[in-house]
Structure formats: structure tokens, C-alpha cells
């Protein structure tokens, strides 16, 4: 078959990951993309000739189908309502979103659906978001649409902010934590900058659990590199950063780079789990956040990335370089 230049539909374009993907497409300029955005979104499309806008809503199949009909060859999907915007409910519509995406992919013979999921653990059933992600994965796998599913580790941009770093959110157009969900906004308003200003770091669990944190730009890069990679078709791939590092070690990196003594405040698992139970009924998104923090505080997800980085010919950013760059870009 003749190989055509890909045209991507980026679903979740106004989110922190989706907008990073589009920024990269705008800079590289060699592939075309359509950003799928809700009319209520205040998203600013990067001004680049190769990027266009399609207004729609994932709960409305016709709008997804209309977007796919516009010469789209590949779909990159990052959308979710896990951190809901005002007026949205946590997770309720996510299965419908992906039913609609998959149906539109089938009807329009989309060559490749690339989806970001969450890292696997033996405790998936304890995290509502992970239960939803696994269901979406199953729907994609069963659909017959060629797919690549990345199961992402904790994003540096999000979780270093949760620890108290302001620098990692500085200059980000659409930070997930400030999307409008009251608890993530409250957490941010109480803690954003305490790491840089006062040298205080909040650590899930006892802080000794290691994670392969990955930065959002690297996730975006991997998802884009998956386009036209036959070796990644119909694969579920664990995706993490280049090194396993504990929360305490992340706090120490900030200490070294800021030349400050850092006080490490553990968030005990029992506290996170208690908060989760308290929030379960009234604010499921908050309960989900607590259950993820509890999981990240006791379960290590540290995949070996050597095969993927070799296959895609990419280099992943380590935590020290990421933090150093963010601090250098930030006026504190
Ligand atoms: N944070 C982590 O460490 C981590 C790790 C692994 C995987 N992930 C996954 O990565 C994905 C992307 O994360 P992110 O930070 O970019 O998320 P995000 O900032 O919360 O973005 C969510 C996106 O979904 C869109 N969306 C929600 N409802 C929609 C609807 N009805 N129709 C159309 N679009 C809709 C939002 O649009 P609006 O702007 O209109 O609301 C937004 O663009 C998420 O699924 C997350 O679970 C995250």
C-alpha cells in the first residue's frame, strides 16, 4: 500500500499531555494534525499551518465521527475526565468516550489508535481510574482497530507539583492540577511552591518507594514516535522514565539544585487510605487521587525502558535534568 503522510487527530488536545503533543507537532511541522477540542474549552491552538481545530464532544459520536472523516489516518487519545472540569463528573463518561472513539476509528478505517493508559500493578482494583483504564484497554484490544497502548508511570510534571514544586507548572498552558477540580486546585493553592520557597517536600508513604517518573514531553514524544512504527502495532507497552528514583531522592535533587536543606514530610499510607474512604461518596475524583497517591507510596513501577528507547531511537529525560531545566526557566 502507498505510504501517505500521516494526519493525526489529537483527542484530549486541551489537556496537559495533549497540548504537549500538539506543541511538538507545531515545532516539527512535518505531519498534519487536527486538535479535537470542546467548544467550552479555552484552549489556544498553537499557531502552525499544519494544525487545525475540530470542535466536538466525546459524548457525541457524530462529532467524533466527523473529526475522523477529515482525512485522519491516526488517532492519539489522551482524553479523560479523571481530573474533572467544573460541570464534569469523575470517570463516568470515560467508557462512552472510548466507545465513540473506537466506533469512529472503525467507520473511518483509522490506521492506528494510540492511547495513554496507566501503569499496571497488582492493586489495579483499588484505584478507580485504573479500573476504568483497564476496561478501555480491553475495549481497544477487542475492537480490531490497530492500536498501541502506553501504560504510563507517574508524570514528573504532575507528581513533582503534588510534592510542592511550583517550577514544574510554571509556563504550562493547561496544568491538569488547575483544571477546575476543587480538590486539586485547593491542594495546589496550599502547597504550590513550598518546595522551592520553604524547602518542604510532601512524600507519599514513607518516601522510600521508587518510581520511574517520566516527563510529559517524553510521553508526548513516545506517542508521536509510535506513529508509523509497525513494531508497536497491537502492543501494550509499559512506559517510564530512564531511572528508578524514590520520592526522597527527588526531594534531595531539589535540595541540591536549590542549595537548600529540604524537610521531607511523609503522607502515611493509612492517612491517604482513610481520606480515600472519607471522600469515596462525596468526591470520587478526590478518592481516586488519594488511592493513586497511596499506591505510588508503596508500589514501585520501574519498567526497563532500554528496548523501547532503542526501538524508537529516543532519549528519556532523567529527574535531575528535568528539575534543573524547570528551575532555570522559573523566576522564583
Ligand atoms: N498524571 C500522570 O502521572 C499519568 C500517568 C499515566 C497516565 N496518565 C493519563 O494521561 C492522560 C492525559 O493526562 P493529562 O494530564 O493530559 O489530562 P488532562 O489535562 O486532565 O486532560 C484531559 C483532556 O480530556 C478532555 N476531555 C474531557 N472530557 C471531554 C469530552 N467530553 N470531550 C472532549 N474532550 C474531553 C479535556 O478537555 P477539556 O479541556 O475540554 O476539559 C482535556 O483535554 C490521562 O488519561 C491520564 O489518566 C497520567
Q: What keywords describe this structure?
A:
11 strands, 332 residues, binds NADP nicotinamide-adenine-dinucleotide phosphate, two-stranded parallel ribbon, Rossmann fold, seven-stranded parallel β-sheet, alpha/beta
Describe the structure.
By secondary structure, the chain is of the alpha/beta class. The protein has a single domain (7-329), classed as Rossmann fold (3-Layer(aba) Sandwich). The protein is 43% helix and 16% strand. The protein contains 13 helices and 11 strands. The protein has helices spanning 16-28, 61-69, 94-107, 128-143, 156-163, 182-191, 194-198, 216-225, 247-258, 269-282, 284-298, 306-312, 319-329; strands at 7-11, 32-37, 51-55, 74-77, 112-118, 147-152, 200-204, 210-211, 235-239, 245-246, 263-267. A 7-stranded parallel β-sheet has the order 3-2-1-4-5-6-9, sandwiched between helices. It has a two-stranded parallel sheet with strand order 7-11. Helix 4 links the parallel strand 5 and strand 6 (147-152). The longest helix is centred in the middle third of the chain and has 16 residues, at 128-143. The N and C termini lie far apart (54 Å). 46% of the residues are buried. Residues 12-157 form the NAD(P)-binding domain.
Amino acid at each position: 500500500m502507498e505510504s501517505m503522510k500521516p494526519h493525526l487527530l489529537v483527542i484530549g488536545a486541551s489537556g496537559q499531555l495533549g497540548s504537549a503533543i500538539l506543541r511538538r507537532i507545531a515545532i516539527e511541522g512535518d505531519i498534519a494534525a487536527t486538535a479535537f477540542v470542546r467548544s467550552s474549552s479555552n484552549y489556544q491552538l498553537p499557531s502552525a499551518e499544519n494544525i487545525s481545530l475540530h470542535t466536538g464532544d466525546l459524548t457525541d459520536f457524530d462529532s467524533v465521527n466527523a473529526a475522523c472523516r477529515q482525512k485522519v489516518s491516526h488517532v492519539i487519545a489522551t482524553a479523560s475526565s479523571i481530573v474533572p472540569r467544573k460541570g464534569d463528573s469523575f470517570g463516568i463518561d470515560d467508557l462512552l468516550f472510548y466507545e465513540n472513539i473506537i466506533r469512529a476509528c472503525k467507520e473511518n478505517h483509522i490506521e492506528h489508535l494510540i492511547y495513554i493508559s496507566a501503569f499496571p500493578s497488582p492493586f489495579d482494583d483499588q484505584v478507580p481510574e485504573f479500573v476504568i483504564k483497564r476496561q478501555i484497554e480491553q475495549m481497544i484490544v477487542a475492537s480490531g482497530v490497530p492500536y498501541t497502548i502506553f501504560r504510563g508511570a507517574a508524570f514528573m510534571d504532575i507528581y513533582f507539583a503534588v510534592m510542592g514544586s511550583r517550577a514544574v507548572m510554571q509556563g504550562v498552558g493547561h496544568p491538569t492540577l488547575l483544571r477546575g477540580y476543587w480538590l486539586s486546585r485547593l491542594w495546589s493553592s496550599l502547597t504550590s511552591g513550598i518546595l522551592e520557597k520553604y524547602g518542604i517536600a510532601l512524600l507519599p508513604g514513607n518516601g522510600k518507594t521508587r518510581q520511574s517518573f517520566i516527563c510529559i514531553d517524553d510521553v508526548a514524544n513516545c506517542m508521536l514516535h509510535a506513529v508509523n512504527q509497525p513494531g508497536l502495532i497491537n502492543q501494550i507497552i509499559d512506559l517510564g522514565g530512564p531511572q528508578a528514583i524514590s520520592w526522597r531522592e527527588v526531594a534531595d535533587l531539589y535540595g541540591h539544585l536549590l542549595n537548600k536543606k529540604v524537610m521531607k514530610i511523609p503522607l502515611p499510607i493509612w492517612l491517604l487510605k482513610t481520606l480515600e474512604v472519607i471522600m469515596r461518596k462525596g468526591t470520587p475524583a478526590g478518592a481516586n487521587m488519594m488511592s493513586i497517591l497511596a499506591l505510588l507510596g508503596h508500589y514501585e513501577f520501574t519498567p526497563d525502558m532500554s528496548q523501547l528507547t532503542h526501538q524508537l531511537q529516543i532519549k528519556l529525560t532523567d529527574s535531575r535534568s528535568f528539575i534543573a531545566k524547570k528551575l532555570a526557566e522559573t523566576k522564583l
